Amino acid sequence: MVFAVVTGGGTAGHVVPAIAILEALEDAGYPTDMLRYVGTKRGIENTLMKSSPVDSAFLPISGLQRSWRPTKLIQNLLLPFRLSNATSLASELIRKWNPNIVISVGGYGSEPMARAARKARIPVMCVSNDRV
Hints:
By secondary structure, this protein is of the alpha/beta class. The chain has 4 helices and 5 strands; from the N terminus they run E-H-E-H-E-H-E-H-E.
């Protein structure tokens, strides 16, 4: 049984809070085999999660490209298809793990998993480290 999936990433500003949440859940008594992390294949999470005892999955998604170069424009045109594919993969993870909750820390890495969780009627908690 999986208690919680923490999702988000693409940048350290999202991954570091995700790691802190996973550590807090461990400190609260949840064993690492009841926790999961889902991020992106291209983000910093691939490096930062290597030493974590929490099982991780990485989705093929990237953010919107902020450039007018032709290659970047093509990547943006393909974004809806990549998002659809990543959401399908996230739905498979939801079915496999059947978590009690998905905790989103933001970033483009969190959207497919949060969308899949909502579709499966699994609660999604959004955590933001933005200052007001």
